[in-house]
Amino acid sequence: MALGLPPELLRQASRALGSVLTPTTPVSIQRRVSDLTCGLLRPPRGSLIRRKSVGGVPGEWIQPPGLPSAGDGGSRGVLLYLHGGGYVTGSPRTHRAVVARLAAHLRMPAFVPDYRLAPEHPYPAALEDTVAAYRGLLAAGFAAHRTAVAGDSSGGALALAAAMAFRDDGTPLPAVIGMFCPWLDLTLKTASRLNPIPKDPLVILDQLRQWAAAYAPANAAEPTASPLHGRFHDLPPIIVHSAGDDPLAADADRLEELAREQGASLDHTRHPGLWHGFHVLAPVMTRADRAVRQFGQQLLAHIAPPPRVAIVGAGVSGLAMAATLKRAGIGTFTVHEKATEPGGTWRDNTYPGLTCDIQARAYSFSFAPNADWKTLYASQAEIQEYLQRVTDDLGLRPYLRLGSEIEQARWDGRCWQLLTTDGRRDEAEVLVSATGFLHHPSLPGIPGLDTFAGAVFHSARWDHSVPLAGQKVAVIGNGSSGVQITTALAGVAGRLTLFQRTPQWIMPTVNFSYPSWVKAAYRRLPGLHTASYRFYQALMEDFFASALVGPGWQRQAVAALCRLHLRHGVKDPVLRRRLTPDYAPMCKRLVLSAGFFRAIGRDDVELADTGIERVEPRGVITRDGTLHEADVIVLATGFDTHAYTRPITITGTDGVTLDDAWARGPYAYRTVAVPGFPNFFMLCGPHSPVGSQAVPPIAEAQAGYVLRWIETLRHTGITAASPTPQATARYNDALRAAMPGTAWTSGCTSYYLDAHGLPELWPWMPEKHRDMLRTPVLDDFTVHGGTAPA
Ligand code: NAP
Fold first, then answer.
1. How far is the CA of 589 from the centre of ligand 1 (A)?
2. From the CB of 482, is ligand 1 less than 6 Å away?
3. SS3 167
4. Rounded distance, CA 84 to CA 91, Å?
5. Could you tell me the distance, in angstroms and rounded to a whole number, from the CA of residue 477 to the centre of ligand 1?
6. Cis (ω within 30 of 0) for the bond into 119?
7. Ligand 1 atom 28: residue of nearest CA
8. Do residues 149 and 134 lie in contact, with contact meaning Cβ atoms separated by under 8 Å?
């Protein structure tokens, strides 16, 4: 992150430096002042900088933080960066901070040659040194196709002129040429034609004329000194960034025109209101930092193209994955979504009264705060609107393939071959399943259900065409959905019967609307978002997650609250007894409600808890023989939470399907990967901390892990990676050993439990999940291809 000093202050500082870089200042002083002032800017912490000669040219070798020193050669890429300074001033020291930042974005080493300067060493000394350094890198083992040659101002011209020389003499070309504010025409014809000439705080044309005369007194019009005069065919792609106040932006504009005419590939980004060489200020200027990051991503797309990624599902976790990739500058992904809109469970569930029981500010993406949440707990409609807005605001829509339902995914040894239900094919090196766990409705096998004369539908497939006002409504199931539906329909339905198989503990809650001044405050003070997000996450984790995974005071407090709520919420002792669970609070997923006890106590609402025997055309018959007449039956009977990616047939190595691998129940490595399924990752997969944390932060942590794997594949040349059975077994043994202390094993049945009666949840604090996913542990993986970092 850049320090973010005010741009006006930085403009004044640049002007002060510009006042020294004038024709009247001796060259030695110009150099000393440039070195001293730019030396105040610091490279990212942990960058390793050492003097080194490459191809006989002295210079600085910059190793970004966390990169093993083995990066001196091999399949990793490298950046050759030519500093600017009009061929007369500038040095690796003046550009150390910005190049180190760029190297960190690229996760590659960079070499900045201390090329010979004019007037002591006029044309073509600087170009010769550039060419020698590039050839030196190739001789050291760096592949040309993984090398970027970039520079700024006169360094940009050196990068372009060198590439032209390589093209003409047959030297393998670099993957990409990059230029910041390039000075491409020493004759200054293009720039001096501007009217008026922009007022740049750093460069003036008189100074440039003096530098041009010092460097190439007799060769200014030659393409090797002024590449704007050259030809641009058969060159690598060119990335250019120019600044609006820089008269030399005219060179970049002209280059763009010529490149277009000559069919060269050039991508030009303009930065209005900024000045020549602004990017050097990246450590202290937010816009410069952003520009350098973007420049890095553009170079990287050519040096180390990211793998293609297929994401299945555009619900909360699929959107988190897509946003994570997009924010990291990776655009090689497709989100396959079988429905016609993103949103997942928030799109599918539209039942009356649906409100998320996690505070809206916590049920949000950390990277997409929303000042306009209307209430503490948001309604389904508002969350769905938020997810759609995030999709649009982050520019994710072009990556969505709506109506694309993946039926099969098969690893062919190189990539995932995908087949959709309508016969379309796609392929991707990385497959991410983000299919959610509250997706496939669980329909009860109640005898006679199909004979019912009225409407029957599941809570997640609400039939809004069915009138409910004044009708006799039967709600089967009293989980979070059944309780919210009952509360919403009490008083609307003519008569409502709630069929309860097992009583639920109900945690009291309150909801309220945010006044407009709160929304205004959130809009104006971004720090408020961070503070409230952290507060609610801490509440979820330090209180609820602690209560779930350990028998501490938090669990006692939750239990006491639930019991108090029941005692005070239900005055009728008989009804209270029927609503009292015989297991400890939190064993099943806690239901949160402010109004359920009021609703169930109404005269027009009935609790039926003697067990359902069958359904007949007129209604539901319970085991005590009572017929509960109904016009509509709502099945609030939950979901098949153990389906995960299914029914997609996923086939890994040796023809083994995920169904085969999971024959004894779903399992994973650290919730995200499965042995035998290379480059396959799951979000909200088996044992994710879904019982103790909101889904968005879980998905963000898992998406971050997948991104780190994608970056690893990209930078190391590893083509396939899947966890070893041993590492996976070790992790699952530890999971099992940790389960007995959790609330979910305290003697109840719930959808949390697997076929063996063990919770399919995270038995530790959520922080441990994040820790486990912070960095891929390569020793836990079987990898193919590439050079793995040490
Ligand atoms: P659920 O918690 O699985 O509840 C299903 C209900 O249906 C239970 O009461 C269950 O009884 C009953 N049931 C299932 N099969 C039955 C049968 N054959 N006969 C009679 N009763 C039967 O499902 P849910 O209420 O849809 O909630 C699922 C999850 O979605 C929640 O745990 C929560 O994670 C999420 N959710 C969240 C919100 C929110 O506000 N954030 C809202 C709704 C849902 P038993 O208890 O006896 O099995």
1. 9
2. yes
3. helix
4. 8
5. 6
6. yes
7. 638
8. yes
Q: What is the chain's alpha carbon radius of gyration, rounded to the nearest angstrom?
A: 32
Residue whose CB lies within 8 A of the most ligand 1 atoms, among 439, 480, 505, 692, for a mutation test: 480
Mutate to test the pocket of ligand 1, among 446, 501, 752 (most ligand atoms within 8 A of CB): 501
Pocket of ligand 1 contains residue 476 by CB under 6 Å: yes
Residue 506 amino acid letter: I
The whole-number pLDDT of residue 74 equals 44
Tell me the C-alpha distance between 543 and 634, whole Å. 34
- 751 close to ligand 1 (CB < 6 Angstrom): yes
Q: 655 in the Ramachandran plot: left (φ > 0), alpha (ψ -120 to 50) or beta? A: left
Give the CB-side neighbour count of residue 498, counting CA atoms within 13 A: 32
Could you tell me if 246 and 185 are in contact, meaning their C-beta atoms sit under 8 angstroms apart? no
**Please, what sign has the CA dihedral across residues 229, 233, 236, 242?**
positive
Ligand 1: does its nearest atom lie under 6 Å from the Cβ of 357?
A: yes
DSSP string, 180-230: ES----TT-HHHHT-SSPP--SS--HHHHHHHHHHH-TTTTTSTTT-GGGS
Which pLDDT score is estimated for 1? 62
Those residues whose C-beta lies under 8 Å from the C-beta of residue 729, and which sit 6 or more positions away, are: none
Maximum Cα interatomic distance, the chain, rounded to a whole number of Å: 107
Rounded Cα–Cα distance for residues 767 and 689 (Å): 10
pLDDT for 692 equals: 86
What's the CA angle centered on 228, arms 166 and 247, to 5 degrees? 135
- The Å distance, Cα 350 to ligand 1 centre, comes to 15
Query: What residue owns the CA closest to ligand 1's atom 12?
Result: 477
Burial category of 734 from C-beta neighbours within 10 Å (exposed 0-12, middle 13-18, buried 19 and up): exposed
Looking at residue 545, the DSSP 8-state letter turns out to be I
* Pair 657, 411: CB distance under 8 Å: no
Token pair, residue 295, equals 């420049």
Please tell me whether residue 411 adopts helix, strand or coil conformation.
strand
Q: How far apart are CA 338 and CA 420, in angstroms?
A: 9
Query: Helix, strand, or coil here: 387?
Result: helix
CA distance 677 to 433: 12
Q: Are 744 and 752 in contact (CB under 8 A)?
A: yes
Residue in this structure with the two tokens 């040796």, named with its chain if needed: 654
Dist. CA 672–CA 675, nearest whole Å: 11
What Cα–Cα distance (Å) separates residue 122 from each residue in 82, 90, 218?
A: 16, 15, 10
Residues 351 and 382 sit within 8 Å (Cβ to Cβ): no
Residues in the chain where the model's pLDDT stays below 50: 70-74, 788-790
Question: Tell me: the pLDDT tens digits for 246-292?
Answer: 999 999 999 999 999 999 999 999 999 999 999 999 999 999 999 99
HEC per residue, 551-594: CCHHHHHHHHHHHHHHHHHCCCHHHHHHCCCCCCCCCCCCEECC
**Would the CB of 569 count as within 6 Å of ligand 1?**
no
Residue position matching structure tokens 């050492």 = 50
Q: What is the SS3 assignment for 33?
A: helix
Residue 80 token pair: 């050759």
Q: List CB contacts of 341: < 8 A, sequence separation 6 or more.
A: 347, 388, 402
The secondary structure of the chain in percent helix, strand, coil, rounded to multiples of 5, reads: 40, 20, 45
- The pLDDT value given to residue 75: 52
Q: Which residue has the tokens 């769905």?
A: 384
pLDDT at 354: 98
State whether the beta carbon of 438 lies less than 6 angstroms from ligand 1: yes
H or E element that contains 335: strand 333-337
Q: Cβ distance 227 to 168 under 8 Å?
A: no
Whether 446 and 615 have beta carbons less than 8 Å apart is answered as yes
The predicted pLDDT at position 338 comes to 97
Beta bridge partners of 50: 61
**∠ Cα 443 448 451 (to 5°):** 100
